[in-house]
Structures are given as C-alpha cells and as structure tokens.
C-alpha cells in the first residue's frame, strides 16, 4: 500500500464516512460508533474531504480539519484519512471506485447522515454510487422523515434492508441500504462555526 494510505486486512468490513469535518464534532464520533455496532464493522474511516463538490464556499484548510479530527478521535477503530486529497478526488463516485480498486478484499459501506440522503439525488452519478457500495443512513434531527421520503429512498426502495437486518449489510451486493435509528445528536459543524453547541 502507498505511504499515507490506511492499512486494511483482507475481509475487513469498513465504514466510510465522507465529510467536510469543518469542524469535526462528537456527532461524527457517535454515528461512527453506532454504525460499527449495528453494521458489525471492524473500522470506520473518516474521509476528510478536500471540499464538497456541491458547496460553493471552500472549508477550512485540510490540515486544520485533519488535525482537529485526530485530536477528537480516541477510539482506535476510527481512522482519519486524507485519502481523497492524496488521490486528487472530490466526487464520491470516483472515491468509491478508487477504494474498491485499492482495497479489493475489503467490504466497504458508505455512511451518511439523513440530511445527505435528502439531497443524494443531486450528487454526481448517485445511482452509480448506490450500485457500487452498500450504504447506511444515520438518523439526524430534522431530516429523518425527509430522508425516508426522499427521491433516492423512493428510487432505491426495493433495495432497502430492514434495520433489524443491518448486520448483514456489509456482506451484501450493492445496491443495498438501510436507515439506522439512534439517539440523535443535534450537533452540526454549521452550528459550531456559528459559535453554538
Ligand atoms: N449529528 C449528526 N447526526 C447524524 N449524522 C451526522 C451528524 N453530524 C454529521 N453527520 C453526518 O456526517 C457526515 C459528515 O458531516 P459533515 O462533516 O458535513 O458535518 P456537518 O455537521 O453535517 O456539517 P455542516 O453543518 O457544515 O453540513 C455527513 O454524512 C453528515 O450527514
Ligand atoms: O460526489 C458528489 O457529487 C458529492 C456531493 C455532495 C457531497 N458529497 C460527499 O458527501 C460527503 C459529505 O459532505 P459534507 O460536505 O456534507 O460533509 C463528503 O464526502 C462529500 O464529498 C459528494
């Protein structure tokens, strides 16, 4: 494996949480831990994005966000990586394709908050993403119901896996996705940037 890329063992089940992490917060840690438990994952990789392709304003410098994420994370199963910057990729469809090529023996699951499922149909090649990797959507205040009735949820309805079968998700062929309920965290980077909690 190239320098700077996370190490993975063959057969590992790894959740991938892409985000701006501007700044990272305990809500990110909470959903990572819930995903590991409910999906029976070995690791969660935080892909600290060079910049969300849909957001007009760039985030804080990547090194600041990586540093903050590494300081926040205590659980050794959560791995913070700048893999997208190293590969010069921003679009999730490209990232997933690259991950599958780099780690052919790993079972990846794409993780995202329910706010992201609501606008998932606006992502570049979103159907291709759903066809490449199982996905788990974590409930977030204000978007849980909207996610359930979103365009992507409707189009992908027949591939939905019931939450009580979530432990099987990583072993399934895509498309396959599930909605995970959890004690929801109201934390958001937007609020933190505005000086809130
Ligand atoms: N409190 C939370 N509950 C559930 N999912 C969350 C929460 N916070 C972040 N996420 C999810 O984590 C991923 C990365 O989040 P991101 O770095 O964008 O933080 P954010 O708090 O959503 O930031 P912003 O407010 O700037 O959009 C996204 O899929 C997002 O939906
Ligand atoms: O590929 C896309 O078109 C796309 C559009 C919007 C968001 N994403 C990804 O979604 C993840 C969450 O983004 P953010 O900014 O909400 O933290 C992050 O990995 C982004 O690269 C990807």
TrEMBL record:
Cytidyltransferase-like domain residues: 16-194
Which is an annotated Pfam family here? Answer: CTP_transf_like
Keywords (A to Z) from UniProt = ATP-binding, NAD, Nucleotide-binding, Nucleotidyltransferase, Pyridine nucleotide biosynthesis, Transferase
The EC class name is: transferase
Query: By its UniProt entry, which Gene3D superfamilies does this protein fall under?
Result: HUPs (3.40.50.620)
The reaction(s) catalysed by this protein are: nicotinate beta-D-ribonucleotide + ATP + H(+) = deamido-NAD(+) + diphosphate
Q: Does the keyword Protein biosynthesis feature in the UniProt annotation?
A: no
EC identifiers of the protein: 2.7.7.18
Q: In which pathway does it act?
A: Cofactor biosynthesis; NAD(+) biosynthesis; deamido-NAD(+) from nicotinate D-ribonucleotide: step 1/1
Instruction: Provide a Gene Ontology MF annotation, just one.
Output: nicotinate-nucleotide adenylyltransferase activity
For this protein, the record's CDD domains field holds: NMNAT
SUPFAM superfamilies, per the entry: Nucleotidylyl transferase (SSF52374)
InterPro entries for this protein: Cyt_trans-like (IPR004821), NadD/NMNAT (IPR005248), Rossmann-like_a/b/a_fold (IPR014729)
Tell me which family the UniProt entry assigns to this protein: Belongs to the NadD family.
Matching entries from HAMAP family are given as: NaMN_adenylyltr
**PANTHER family, alphabetically?**
NICOTINATE-NUCLEOTIDE ADENYLYLTRANSFERASE-RELATED, PHOSPHOPANTETHEINE ADENYLYLTRANSFERASE
Relate the protein's function as given in its record. Answer: Catalyzes the reversible adenylation of nicotinate mononucleotide (NaMN) to nicotinic acid adenine dinucleotide (NaAD).
Record-given protein name:
Probable nicotinate-nucleotide adenylyltransferase
């Amino acid at each position: 494996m190239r320098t700077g890329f996370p190490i993975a063992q063959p057969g590992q089940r790894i959740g991938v949480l892409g985000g701006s992490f501007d700044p990272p917060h305990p809500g990110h840690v909470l959903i990572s831990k819930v995903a590991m438990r409910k999906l029976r994952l070995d690791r969660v990789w935080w892909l600290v994005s060079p910049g969300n392709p849909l957001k007009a304003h760039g985030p804080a410098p990547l090194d600041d966000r990586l540093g903050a994420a590494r300081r926040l994370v205590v659980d050794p199963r959560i791995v913070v990586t700048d893999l997208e910057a190293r590969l010069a990729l921003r679009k999730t469809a490209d990232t997933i394709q690259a991950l599958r090529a780099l780690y052919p023996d790993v079972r990846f699951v794409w993780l995202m908050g329910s706010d992201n499922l609501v606008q998932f149909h606006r992502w570049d090649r979103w159907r291709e993403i759903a066809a490449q990797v199982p996905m788990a959507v974590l409930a977030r205040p204000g978007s849980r119901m909207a996610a359930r009735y979103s365009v992507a949820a409707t189009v992908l309805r027949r591939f939905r896996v019931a939450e009580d079968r979530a432990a099987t998700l990583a072993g399934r062929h895509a498309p396959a996705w599930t909605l995970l309920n959890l004690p929801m965290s109201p934390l958001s980077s937007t609020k933190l940037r505005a000086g809130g909690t």
